[in-house]
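Milestone M4 deliverable, item 7.
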Amino acid sequence: MAKRCVFHLSVLIVACAPGVAQVAFGQSDEIRPGENLVTQGLPPIPASLADEVRRYTESHSASLADWHPTERSILISTRFANTAQIHCVKQPGGARTQLTFFDEPIGDASYEPGSGRCFLFTKDMGGNDPRVPRSEAEQMVEQVAKNGTPVWYLMAKNEGHGFRKKENADFQFYATVLFVRQFLLGSS
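Output delivered:
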């Protein structure tokens, strides 16, 4: 009988302090979660894994949020540092100007439809995720663990729904790669 395992990435995640996934070079060959990450059951993550998957974690993207209704400009969402923020681009190939500066990520954004004199946006609230409260995620982990199934639990304090802060997202990616290798590919 195949061994069952569970990797639960809690969807109740909120903003955090810088330096979440820290590698102490010269002192350790493991990536350690920052103090904002709550982990349970995860084995040590080798520091060499960060180098191996770097090309997948060092990317930047921008997505179109809205076209200005009367001018030749757009709102885009892009992430620099830890969170996605809204920027305005006033011409094709033009420089972006950052319009929002929050600790929490910005979701959707749209211009006022008539004149575009202002724009509306959504923003994560940090830890108040009504979709999966932390207590429910912890209950799921507890029930699965009671059955003797290995559980890897990773939850970032101070993030909303998902891992959006770069340090958290990187650590989650490293843990996912390690999980796939260990339980799905049968290697470590």
